[in-house]
Amino acid sequence: MRVRLAIAAFMLATVPAAADDLISEGRTLAEENCARCHAIGAGDESAHEDAPAFRTLSAKYPVASLEEALAEGIVSGHPDMPELAFPPEQVAALIAYLESVQPH
Ligand code: HEC
Questions:
Q1: Which amino acids bring their CB within 6 angstroms of ligand 1?
Q2: What is the sign of the dihedral through the CA atoms of 92, 97, 103 and 104?
Q3: Quick check: 98 and 57 in contact, CB under 8 A?
């Protein structure tokens, strides 16, 4: 009985922490790869005038729909947007971060 309680407490403590880790990893990736053009946070301005602020992306499409683009390389018509492709763990982290900055 006591063991089962301990396991339940452990799971409650680690599940949100794991999500936070993913989001903070995603934030680091965004800072390193995207922030020089895009506003990545809740109130910053994009450094590149044509780059949409990440917090506005969900107004156009669900953020999760970027998963494929991030894995296979984001290609857009704009010549200033570099082609970036990420391995699956980093895609998950970036999506988690993008989700976290959308207005809910
Ligand atoms: C060198 C500047 C630059 C960097 C670095 C950059 N972007 Fe962009 N990004 C742009 C510009 C400019 C646009 C607008 C393109 C257009 O309007 O065609 C854009 C558009 C986008 C869009 C919107 C596409 C659409 O059709 O709505 C997404 C999503 C995006 N970028 C994600 C990212 C992510 C994620 C990163 C980092 C992993 C990143 N970008 C890095 C310049 C950049």
A1: 33-34, 36-38, 48, 50-52, 57, 60, 66, 74, 76-78, 80-82, 84, 94
A2: positive
A3: yes
Q: What is the mean pLDDT of residues 33-56?
A: 94
CA nearest ligand 1 atom 19, residue: 51
pLDDT of residue 47: 95
Is the pLDDT confidence value at 41 over 70?
yes
Q: Token digits for 80?
A: 């200033």
Count of Cβ atoms closer than 10 Å to residue 1 Cβ: 5
Structure tokens at 43: 């109130």
Q: Determine the atom of ligand 1 nearest the C-alpha atom of 36.
A: 5
